[in-house]
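I am still getting used to backbone structure tokens and would like to learn alongside you. Please make up or recall a protein chain and show it to me in full. Would you write everything just below, so we can both look at the same thing?
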Amino acid sequence: MGSLSSRVLRHPGRARAQQEPGSGAGGSARRPESGGDAAAHGFCYCPGSRKRKRSSGAFCYCHPDSETDEDEEEGDEQQRLLNTPRRKKLKSTSKYIYQTLFLNGENSDIKICALGEEWSLHKIYLCQSGYFSSMFSGSWKESSMNIIELEIPDQNIDIEALQVAFGSLYRDDVLIKPSRVIAILAAACMLQLDGLIQQCGETMKETINVKTVCGYYTSAGTYGLDSVKKKCLEWLLNNLMTHQNVELFKELSINVMKQLIGSSNLFVMQVEMDVYTALKKWMFLQLVPSWNGSLKQLLTETDVWFSKRRTDFEGMTFLETEQGKPFVSVFRHLRLQYIISDLASARIIEQDSLVPSEAACQCRGHGIEPWSGKTLHAAEQLSPCATTTEPALYNPRATTAESRVPQLLKPVHLEPVLRNKRSHRNKKPAHRNKE
């Protein structure tokens, strides 16, 4: 007994191995030698393990802590899961405020009534608006009222626009549809919401196109957005001649068209005659806004309409009649000297009988600038196009003797031909040196 206990104390692993099941009735089992029968079966008796494990070779005593390693790995996995962050989006304070205070109207201390609708709001939020800040801080009677009736003088403002404007006081972002931006801008200007006004302006700049440009231009002028107005004018200067549209011609006012035609930054297609043709179609749509044909039919319908009224002019051109006088200020900016230098274009001008004949005659040979009594320079009398230096392919705006030579015989840059900037129109013609 003493020797056994001493062996157990000295070799605890061996004692456990001796107590394995199947050791026999006598008690102890010998540890098999390397290469014995058990090794052939591939059993591994690992000290500290309570179960046999298959091994590829002889008995193994080299991994006494294999089960402990499994427990440690499982513990490490659990620890890793505990330390891995899980992303879950919480409801932001802004959304909570918008939902609870604005939409639900909880703890409201004032009611705003307008256009038959009521909003349960809060004075502390309304004071972000310059309109309500002045109302509540001054000696106005509304400063002590709990129900305020707003008068809406602007027809652009509707209930939906007021909903967006009031809601912007309770949140940090506002979604603005381009189709609603003018109404929202009107409401923001009335309530003096500078942040919302700025956002409306940015939305307008980003969505200028053939359908929105005229509405944006008018609204920008009404509500003082000069940067938007300038952006719209730039778009029209660059696209009026290349993006002609029936609805666009209907919406362009006389004042806007006068600015466009009078600008040296207007891009034209090849010749000044294109500008005259565009003006003729535009004038027809201004006089007959109910016409709903296609752009391809527009020029034909325009010519037919004016030809039917030519007999009623009694020897006058259309611009000399009462119906045509409002358009004189626009046609005055036409550079007729760049049109009548071409015989075919001059004949069209004469047949249309829109422009006063005196203006064409003055350009043609009398040395008088059209629409005024200013005498043209000698160079312009000799050639109406003698003031530009732009090369062009049989372009009547070609100026020098060299540029009037057929351009097929020398290299031509196509870009100046296709899209000409009329910068030369504002330049005074230079005198020729007498030889």
